[in-house]
């Protein structure tokens, strides 16, 4: 069974962990502090998931999902993540995070900044453009007409392929957009971020976004 570690047991982390359990994954979850801090919460909110320290959760996980506030990304230890496929579900959201200069002033996507800190991790941007409350409600089996699509961006194509399989098992059509930089098309403020699209419409929006960026 594929083991998934979810770092961050908040709104997104809990929904992702439950979705992963429904997808047949072995799920371990970790917060920022001691295991005891989240053990009861995990038992009630994510039955079936195992609460662990972040280091233990990551150690033999096949894939790691980052669901911590972006303002806290530097508190995630890059060491244990080296060589791991890591899903970056985080967004820069100034009203919640407060203004952060490195994200405000950058032409890079938030994931391109995060990947510099998590050097060695095989970072894949996805799951950032679906609300935590929709993740369990919008999932449908493969082949369902109008199945919702989610974008997947990574500089590491094999890692992206592995995550695309996860997205499919989560109940969504995965669409590979290209390198991490192309994740700009589904960051906050974009059409894709603000909407919900099936594959064909998603690919059209992706084309518009990348076309605009290339000609800017
Ligand atoms: N809300 C949405 O619908 C949505 C959708 C897609 C993506 N996102 C993005 O997903 C991320 C999480 O959002 P959220 O709404 O789930 O936030 P949240 O409810 O505040 O949960 C974040 C959790 O991360 C934990 N945490 C902080 N630092 C950590 C660390 N180093 N290791 C492990 N856990 C840590 C926090 O626990 P402590 O109390 O222990 O610090 C908190 O429980 C954000 O970047 C957000 O932009 C949100």
- Helical fraction equals 25-40%
Radius of gyration: 16 Å
Task: Indicate the overall shape.
Answer: globular
Classify the secondary structure makeup into a structural class.
alpha/beta
Largest sheet: 8 strands, mixed
Strand content: 15-25%
- Average pLDDT metric: 95
Q: How many helices?
A: 10
The spatial strand order of the largest sheet comes to 3-2-1-4-5-6-7-8
Distinct bound molecules: NADP nicotinamide-adenine-dinucleotide phosphate
End-to-end Cα distance, whole Å, is: 45 Å
Along the chain, the helix and strand elements come as EHEHEHEEHHHEHEHEHH
Unreliable runs, pLDDT <50, ≥5 residues? Answer: none
Number of strands: 8
Could you characterize the architecture of this molecule?
InterPro entries: NAD(P)-bd_dom_sf (IPR036291), P5C_Rdtase_cat_N (IPR028939), STEAP_metalloreductase (IPR051267). This protein has 216 residues and is an alpha/beta fold. Helix content is 39%, strand content 17%. It contains ten helices and eight strands. It has helices at residues 11-22, 35-45, 54-59, 94-97, 101-104, 110-117, 132-135, 157-170, 191-194, 199-215; strands spanning 3-7, 26-30, 50-51, 63-66, 85-88, 122-125, 149-154, 173-178. It has an eight-stranded mixed beta sheet, sandwiched between helices. The longest helix has 17 residues, at 199-215. The model has no long low-confidence stretch (mean pLDDT 95). NADP nicotinamide-adenine-dinucleotide phosphate binds at residues 7-13, 30-33, 54, 67-70, 72, 75-76, 89-91, 93, 128, 131-132.
